[in-house]
Amino acid sequence: MKKSITLILMALVLAVASFAAAKDDPLAAWKPKFDPSTAEYTYILSNISHPVIEGVAVGYRIRDAVWEKTNGRIYVDFRPLAQLGGEKDVISKLKLGAVQGMLSSSVAAANVSDRLGIVNLPYVVDTFDKLDTFRNTPELWEPFANGAQQQGLLVADITGYGLYGWATTKPVKTLADAKDINFRIAEAPVNTDTYKAWGLKFTVMPWPDVPQALQTGVITGLDHTAIVCNITKKFTIAKNFTELNYAQGLFVHLVNKRWLNKLPKDLQETFLNVIHEESAKTRVLTRKQHDTQIAKAKESGVQFYQLSAADVDKLKKEAEPVLKKWGKKIGPDYLAKVQATLGK
Predict the structure, then answer these.
(1) Dist. CA 253–CA 58, nearest whole Å
(2) Pick from 22, 42, 112, 126: CA 20 to 30 A from residue 8's CA?
(3) What is the pLDDT of residue 9?
(4) Ranges of H-type helices in 118-188
(5) Options 3.30.420.10, 3.40.190.170, 1.20.1540.10, 3.10.25.10; which CATH number does 32-342 get?
(6) Which residues 6+ apart lie within 8 Å of 147 measured at CB?
(7) Which secondary structure element, helix H or strand E, spans residue 162, and what is its range?
(8) Which of 91, 107, 72 is nearest to 184 (CA)?
(9) What is the DSSP string of 79-109?
(10) Is residue 70 within 8 Å of residue 270, measured between CB atoms?
(11) How far is CA 262 from CA 69, 206, 329, in A?
C-alpha cells in the first residue's frame, strides 16, 4: 500500500514538473512531432522574434513541410527568440556557415548588402499590394534576391510583420506633434538617414532595451509596426499609434549558399520550393494579422491617427535626398525601375 502511494506521488510530481517546464517554455507548442535525429542534413534557421507573429511562425511551417516533402532528409532547426544571439552576431555566423539560414529583419538586412536596403526606403515598397508586385515581378525580385551574392548568401524569400508607424506616449496627429517625440529606431543605416532627413529626434537602440526605455521616458516614441507593438505589449505604455505606413517590416530569408550547394539538386529544388510556397501563404496571413492586431489594439483603448496628405507629402519631399543617396548604393537604374513599376 505504501509503495503504491509512493509511486502515485512520484507520478504526480513528475506530471507537475513536466507541466511547469512546458509552461516556462515559450516555444513548447511548436515542438516537432517527428524525430529529427535521423535527418541527413540540418539547416539551422535563426530569428530574433516570437513565432506568434505570422512572419516568424513561417519558420516552423517551413520546418514541417521540408521534413514531409524530403521524406525526413532535411531538418530545419528553427531558432526564434534570439536563441543564437542578436542579428548582427547571427549575420556574422551566417556568412561563416555556423548558421545556415536567417529570417533577418529588413532593417538589419541592409547591413548585409546595400541593395537589400531598398525595401526600407521611405514610400517605395509601402503597401501590401506593392510588396506582392515587388515579389512577383522577376525584374524587380531577382536583383534583390541576388543582392547578397558577394556575401555568400541567397535571398530565398520574404515574409513580414506589418506596416511601420509611430507608437507614442502622447498623440501625434501632425508633423509638428512629432517634433516633440524622441523616437527609438533600429540599428540600421537607412533608418538613421531617413530620420535625419525628417529632422526628428531619434535614438538608435537595440530592441531588448526598448521596454525599460519606454517605461523610464528615455524614449517617448517607437518606430515599428502595429502588429509587433500590440503583440509585445508596447501599447501598454505607448497608447497612441500614428499610421505612417512609410515602409513595411519584412523578414528577409537569407540562406548560406555553400550549405545550399552541397545539397543534392533534387533536395535544393524541394527546399527552395517549400520556402517559396510557405512564404507566399504567410504574406497573406500577415495582411490578416495586421487588421486583427489593429482591431484588438483599438478595443484595448489604443488611439490611432493618420497624418494629413500635406504632412505626408512633406515627409516624401524631405526624404528625396535619402532616396538619391541610397539610389547610388543600390543602383539608380534599379531603384528607378522599382519606383516606376510600383507607382503604376
Answers:
(1) 10
(2) 22
(3) 43
(4) 128-136, 138-145, 175-178
(5) 3.40.190.170
(6) 113, 115, 116, 155
(7) strand 153-168
(8) 107
(9) E-TTTT--HHHHHHHHHHTSS-EEEEEHHHH
(10) yes
(11) 18, 35, 32
Angstrom distance (rounded) from CA 105 to CA 213:
21
Strand partners, 167: 222, 241
Nearest alpha-carbon partner for 170 in 158, 157, 183: 183
Using alpha carbons, select from 125, 136, 36, 35 the residue that is nearest to residue 77.
36
On whether the pTM is more than 0.85, the answer is: yes
The series of mean pLDDT values per 10 residues for the chain, 344 residues long, is 47 42 74 97 96 98 98 98 92 97 94 94 97 98 97 98 98 98 92 97 91 96 97 97 97 98 98 98 98 98 98 98 96 97 91
Query: Where do the structural domains in the chain lie, given as residue ranges?
Result: 32-342
Residue 315 to residue 310: CA distance in whole angstroms: 9
Environment class of 251 (CB within 10 Å of its CB; exposed 0-12, middle 13-18, buried 19+): buried
Residue 96: all three cell numbers together: 561563416
Round to whole Å and give the CA distance between 47 and 67: 20
Q: Across-strand partners of 103?
A: 253
The pLDDT tens digits of the residues spanning 178-216 come to 999 999 998 888 999 999 999 999 999 988 899 999 999
Tell me the DSSP string of 64-83.
HHHHHHTTTSEEEEEE-TTT
For 174, other C-beta atoms within 10 Å of its C-beta total: 14
pLDDT of residue 23: 53
Q: Which residue has the cell 532528409?
A: 73
Q: Which residues contact 187 (CB under 8 A, 6 or more apart)?
A: 88, 107, 108, 204, 205, 206
DSSP result, 171-238: ---SHHHHTT-EEEE-S-HHHHHHHHHHT-EEEE--GGGHHHHHHHTS-SEEEEEHHHHHHTTGGGT-
